[in-house]
């Protein structure tokens, strides 16, 4: 009896091979298209952010020119890569841009209203911006030492509350000339960059580590009407006056730099390894508390009211207006620097 042995040989036919190659090519083509689309979208997003930042810089420069009143005209920065495609400018009357991109015969007693569209020819993107600037009222932050408020002849110690609880009508050593914030625009701290006078009507918490930007920048006056908490690893720059009506709390590893005056009600608290620098005058009502390795430098004058607990370093290069009040608490650790005993 003949026994036949059958052997099953498996393999890929030419048709199957061609089909597999075609499918692989289709997958590669689709993947490449998605990658290219994602890269293009990322480039557009990056270009849009750059355009927004550059436009903000241009508007900030124009605003600074308007408020400095150096000449009777304000001009776009000559080095800006942006073009203006449309604009509507009113300064008492309609204004035109000349060939040098300047607004001539500026009336500084009138408000300036600007509606402009910037374009970036390299990336073919546009961004519209609207703003208006009123003639800013002059105001000064003066630091004149004055007597504490009279308690109506009542010498009872129970009526001697903390400095920050005194009557609102009581004079103190910091006079902000009754600064009016009604004309300030309402801000959102997530915007990171502010080129107009801005106010925050609710308490502001910045969040940790600058979640939305590398630095929070104020080009003009800023007012925090319900207080400010600057969280860990946040950088903040104020190029004009900074007003904080309901306390400033500075957490760890914070850098706050104020180019002009800093005015604080309800106290200042600074945590470990944070650095505060005030280029002009500092006024603090309601006390000062600084943790170890925290530093506060005031380049001009300091007026301070309330309890102090300075474990870090306080340096005053100008006049410490009421230092005598704290002579039993302060310990000098340098030519102009102090801590508490």
Walkthrough of the structure:
- It contains one helix and 30 strands.
- The protein is of the alpha/beta class.
- The protein folds into two domains: 45-133, no CATH class; 142-148 and 171-340, no CATH class.
- It has a nine-stranded mixed sheet with strand order 10-13-16-19-22-25-28-30-29, with no helix packed on it.
- A hairpin with a 4-residue loop joins strand 5 (112-120) and strand 6.
- The longest helix is centred in the first third of the chain and has 55 residues, at 14-68.
- The N and C termini lie far apart (115 Å).
Key terms:
2 domains; nine-stranded mixed β-sheet; 1 helix; flat
Number of domains: 2
Count of helices?
A: 1
Q: What spatial order of strands do you see in the largest sheet?
A: 10-13-16-19-22-25-28-30-29
> Termini distance?
115 Å
Strand portion, in percent? 25-35%
Q: For the report, how would you describe the main beta sheet?
A: 9 strands, mixed
Structural class: alpha/beta
Residue windows where pLDDT falls under 50 for at least 5 positions: 143-171
Question: Into which percent range does the helicity of residues fall?
Answer: 10-25%
Mean pLDDT: 80
């Amino acid at each position: 009896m003949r026994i036949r042995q059958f052997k099953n040989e498996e393999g890929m036919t030419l048709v199957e091979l061609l089909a597999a190659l075609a499918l692989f090519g289709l997958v590669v083509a689709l993947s490449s298209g998605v990658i290219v689309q994602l890269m293009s979208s990322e480039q557009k997003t990056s270009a849009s952010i750059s355009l927004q930042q550059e436009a903000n810089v241009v508007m900030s420069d124009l605003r600074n020119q308007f408020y400095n009143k150096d000449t009777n005209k304000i001009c776009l920065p000559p080095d800006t890569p942006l073009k203006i495609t449309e604009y509507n400018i009113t300064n008492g009357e309609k204004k035109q841009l000349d060939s040098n991109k300047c607004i001539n015969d500026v009336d500084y007693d009138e408000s300036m209203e600007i509606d402009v569209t910037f374009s970036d020819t390299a990336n073919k993107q546009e961004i519209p911006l609207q703003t208006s600037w009123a003639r800013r009222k002059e105001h000064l932050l003066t630091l004149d030492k004055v007597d504490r408020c009279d308690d109506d002849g009542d010498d009872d110690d129970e009526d001697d509350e903390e400095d920050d609880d005194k009557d609102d009508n009581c004079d103190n050593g910091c006079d902000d000339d009754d600064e009016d914030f009604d004309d300030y625009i309402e801000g959102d701290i997530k915007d990171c960059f502010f080129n107009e006078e801005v106010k925050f009507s609710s308490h502001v918490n910045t969040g940790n580590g600058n979640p939305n930007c590398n630095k929070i920048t104020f080009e003009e006056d800023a007012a925090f009407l319900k207080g400010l908490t600057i969280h860990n690893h946040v950088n903040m720059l104020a190029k004009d006056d900074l007003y904080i009506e309901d306390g400033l709390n500075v957490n760890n590893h914070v850098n706050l730099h104020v180019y002009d005056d800093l005015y604080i009600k309800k106290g200042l608290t600074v945590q470990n390894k944070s650095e505060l620098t005030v280029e002009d005058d500092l006024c603090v009502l309601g006390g000062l508390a600084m943790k170890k390795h925290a530093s506060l430098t005031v380049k001009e004058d300091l007026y301070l009211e309330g309890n102090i607990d300075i474990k870090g370093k306080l340096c005053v290069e100008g006049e410490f207006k009421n230092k005598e009040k704290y002579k039993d608490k302060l310990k000098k650790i340098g030519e102009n620097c102090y801590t508490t005993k």
